[in-house]
Amino acid sequence: MFAVHESHLRVVSGQEYLAEYRFHTRVARHFFCKSCGIYTFHSRRSAPDVFGVNVFCLEDFDIDGVPVNLNQGALRP
Question: How far is CA 2 from CA 13, 51, 73, 76, 77, in A?
Fold first, then answer.
């Protein structure tokens, strides 16, 4: 996810495939593809004008040179 201010986020096509989900306080917004279920982008309660964008689902996005943080999940005994 990359943080993008709402003034720089523009969905140019495929809006009809997006589903929005809000829970609890209904301030945070989560968007998913209706067809495949991929998590595309979201805004948080703490910063509703900033979106976290899943760049791996952007068309023609070049990931070369993008730093990737690897996280190991919970260790099981």
Answer: 20, 8, 20, 30, 33
Q: Which residues pair with 50 in a beta bridge?
A: 5
Cα separation, 10 vs 29, in Å, equals 15
The tally of domains found in the chain comes to 1
For residue 62, is it within any domain?
A: no
- Report the alpha-carbon distance of residue 73 to residue 34 in Å, rounded: 27
Q: What's the CATH code of the domain at 30?
A: 2.170.150.70
- Secondary structure of residue 57 in the 3-state scheme: helix
Output the pTM of the full model: 0.72
Tens digit of pLDDT for each residue in 7-19?
Answer: 999 888 889 999 9
pLDDT of residue 26: 84
